[in-house]
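Protein: Beta-lactamase domain-containing protein
Species: Caballeronia glebae
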Amino acid sequence: MNVASAWHFVAFLILFASATIARGETVLSVTRIAPGNYAHRGHDDVATRENGGDIANVGFIVGARCVAVIDTGGTLAEGRALRAAIRAVTPLPVCYVINTHMHPDHIFGNAAFKADHPQFVGSAKLAQAEASRADNYMRALNRELGSAAAGSEIVAPTRTIDGTGTLDIGGRTLTLRTWKTAHTNNDLTVYDEKTGTLWTGDLLFVRCIPVIDGSVLGWLDDIAHIRQMNPRHVVPGHGPLDPPWPQSLDAEARYLADLARDVRAAIKRGETIRQAVDSIGLDEKDKWLLFDLYHRRNVTAAYAELEWEQ
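Structure follows.
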């Protein structure tokens, strides 16, 4: 094995070995999606003590000057493991920690980066959304994860985006954009202009069922605009990294459009919300992971939104 081959083999071990120990720290496994873009694939599950809350896709982008982290995971421990993964790739400082939205699996690792003194970046609506659910999120985290939740906390944004904004990490411009209420009311995407890599947060679920905590109609509208971006690489909030595009977005759009159509039809027939929940979309069961956990909630959310539609 020549020197170059040996180096590539070592790099492979660093980037793809899950839960390895380096300098006394657990290192989160990451995959190089595109030059400078590294992502970790979360478990396709709800947060449990077994998976330690590691259920969302998180990662980072390396510039010539510094590093931007995109979501930090479901616990302080996961955030620390992500920080160790960054250190295995580059000694550059972390200057930005970007949260794509408020949900616990994306934000509770933020505290691992406080000592780096980055700017914590999110939607202009993120802080209020986090504050309104903070107590519930902390109770649920401690109940579901026990000691694995130790030290986890919500770190509010110190820099906010309303519409679009850019971050310069040195030779690499990141375009951040907020969206119409969809998965939540504080969704934000990150686009690396240099490589055409789009970090969608939970505006894109792949294989895992989309979860509505905002607006089904807003989400469909956002999808139409996201499709026009035509990225070269994609990091979804959940599911396989860099999935086929735009097929993955089409599958999500079809589920949401069918849901809206069927709920509207049920409302027009005079069905109650319970009747709608018990009958709509059951043929989707084998198409999505976590269907039994979230589909009925989606029907409920869509019914509540569309019931008063004019």
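Remarks: The first strand starts at residue 20 and ends at 22.
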